[in-house]
Amino acid sequence: MKKLFAFLMVVLLVFIPVFAGGSKEEAATSTVDVSNITAEDLQNAHITIQMWHAQTGENGVALDKVVELFNQTNPYGITVVATNQGGYTDAHQKTLAALSAGSYPNITQAYNNNMMEYMPSGKLMQLDSYLADDFGISQEELSTVVPAYLGENKSFPDGHTYATSLGKSTEVMFYNKTFLDEHGLSVPTTYEELAEVSKAITAITGKPAFGHDSMDNFGIYGPINFGSEYADPQGNIYIFDENNIDTTKAFYQWWQKGINEGYFRTAGEDLYCSGPFGNGDIIIYIGSSSGASYITPNGFEVGVAPNPVGPNPAVIQQGGNFCGFTTGDALVDLATSIVLEYLYTAEAGALYSANTGYAPANKAALETDVYKDSIASGNLQAQAKNVSATYPDEYLAYDPVFENSYGVRQILSDVVENIALDPNADIDALIETAKSEIGI
């Protein structure tokens, strides 16, 4: 990891150790030509990196452990100070304000659609060249990062990489194993089987059998599973065009049939399906793998399985990522990239995953003792995490980021929600309304 990192730039000679925040202070007039950076240069600079994040509870504790391990083991003498800024909305708003003020952290945690709002500052760090150099993560270890994570973090309009990931949750299927076993029902693996099993359950219980926690996800990944293409990072929406409208409508009709015949439902006023599932009111639901800890089963055994899929299997992987901001100091920016790259390593991912309900970003983490020990407990969170971590690469999907991508997501969510709220909903009319709101 001692390749010379060649480039020319002006460095502010304020003081050493280097202050790593993006300061509003005026640049000193003295400059030095830095054409080569070595590990020794970084060590001598004693750089401190400020990291803002949105992790709380056990996730926050786990991130602190990752940061502590990095601080103890990185060969460059870099120190990371991680500070919680509240939830994702809080962290995002504080980051925007800090960028506007000109005094900002080196790293922040955010959803990729929020990172789009950091781009006008001119400070959001492109990571492509850093990921290719010999500092930080090796190319061998980068090759074992989950491909969908790498894809998501460069799924911006310009195609550049602006983020890295530590761990993610996915959607998984929780089911009342006791009930299915007692009634000789199989665990569904496809959308078609899900409808058949749900219908059989409702015939026994007289209640809806299946619920889905997230209409936001279902509104995109339901049609994708039926064969539709959603959108691209340039903001082209395909889900309702002539090549996709039939499969999109087929999903809506499948969902509407289940609602009308009484075997599908939404979370509704319960907000999440874990409550009615734990009470035995529903027998199967799809929710986040990280939500397993919220399930309190009332006298039955819970099973966890991969999501049922359609002809075009797609399962969302979700969670905030980490991005960096440039400072104009070559040493500091390189140090920032090294920290971001560390989050992609098996070491970091295994430690974080072992202490949370999230799957690691690096598949090699699954072979580490710390991850295996966390799975060996066999509890529900461990089961859900392991299902999440072992989906086939080609199943894992993500939303492309483009202007108003969040708004489009909400509009598609409304279509699925409105079908559930009105048994007589006119699907064609809902599609036309959605197209008008999207502007296509």
From TrEMBL:
GO terms for cellular component: periplasmic space. Its main location: periplasm. The keyword Signal applies. SUPFAM superfamilies: Periplasmic binding protein-like II. Residues 1-20 form the signal peptide. It comes from the Bacteria. Keywords: Signal, Transport. It is found in: Periplasm. PANTHER family: ARABINOSE-BINDING PROTEIN-RELATED (PTHR43649), SN-GLYCEROL-3-PHOSPHATE-BINDING PERIPLASMIC PROTEIN UGPB (PTHR43649:SF31). Belongs to the bacterial solute-binding protein 1 family. The complex is composed of two ATP-binding proteins (UgpC), two transmembrane proteins (UgpA and UgpE) and a solute-binding protein (UgpB). This is sn-glycerol-3-phosphate-binding periplasmic protein UgpB. The lineage of its organism: Bacteria, Pseudomonadati, Spirochaetota, Spirochaetia, Spirochaetales.
